[in-house]
Design goal:
Layout (H helix, E strand, L loop, with lengths): L4 E2 L9 H9 L19 H18 L5 E6 L2 H13 L4 E6 L2 H11 L3 E7 L21 E4 L1 E2 L4 E2 L11 E4 L16 E5 L10 E6 L16 H6 L9 H16 L2 H21 L4 E2 L11 E6 L5 H10 L2 E2 L10 E4 L6 H17 L1
Parallel strand pairs: 1-13, 3-4, 3-5, 5-8, 8-9
Antiparallel strand pairs: 2-10, 6-7, 9-10, 11-12, 12-14
Helix pairs in contact: 1-6, 2-6, 3-4, 7-9
Length: 356
Amino acid sequence: MGNIFNFSAGPAVLPKDVLIRAQAEMLDWHGSGMSVMEMSHRGKEFVSILEKTEADLRTLLDIPSQYKVLFLQGGAVAENAMIPMNLLNGQRADYAVTGSWSQRSVKEASAIGDIDVVAKADPFIQVPAYSEWKLNQDAAYVHICTNETVNGVEFDSLPDTGDVPIVADMSSHLLSRPVDVSKYGVIYGGAQKNMGPAGLCIVIVREDLLNQASPLTPSVFHWKTQAENKSMVNTPPTYSIYIAGLVFEWLLAHGGVAAIEQVNIAKAKLLYDYIDSTDFYTNNIANNNRSRMNVPFFLKDETLSAAFVQGADSRGLLQLKGHRSVGGMRASIYNAMPIEGVEALIDYMKEFEKLN
């Protein structure tokens, strides 16, 4: 089929080495005679997979010992409801709206408890200046989405929230750059961007925040209960955890998060530099908030959009159509996207511009 480059925002491209290894281990994991799909989640085989997956994630992000790592289901959307269940308990929380996903977070959390929108970008092209945020000193937490997958807006720093813990949705850029975990109360993200297949949500939560849940919180949604049961209050998404573990091994073998960040910087710079060099394509995100992972762009003549996507597909440049709520194009260039994919996209963009 030649070179295929998948620019999907998620579920997204996985490292080829990971897929090849998963294929080799599909029928018989390490001589066990079982596929990982068939294993008991409480058996020694899967427990060893889970323990290594957590250990490797801790190494990659240098997660302090006072943080628990949970492997949960329902993705980031379900976690949007679990967060107020676990942290509000009669208090209020602050939310910043910087794009479609943080807007969705507000909707989900508002069904559970009282929240205040303390900052809102309009339009979704930058993170509002922190001097404009109306933070509450007595808030239970401050929620942010540090990379907006749909809109291509990424935080370049953090607001000063004092003693109020920051809760961050990092679904679409977790493991793409170093993170000082100690600056957050909670970090969470769906795996289907940089970490693995859909079906898994990873939550990193500071231990002192495990005792704030509403008494009405179901056990399967209760972080403390899940932590005490090693994410096994219910059957965890075993195969998604296994694939995530292979991705973590792949990342460690390639130098870890600091090394992949340099690759990601180079890929994003290449694409943004080309977009900025021509008026045929545009990206309207503020320069300091341009996402390295999700690059939305528009054609000057939007009537050409369908032809652009069709031509890209024929070249093996897949899933470039922008989110339905935004339109245009979007190139998601996660860790597993090689720089050759970005180069091939730019070559096609240049050719399409010449023809039109």
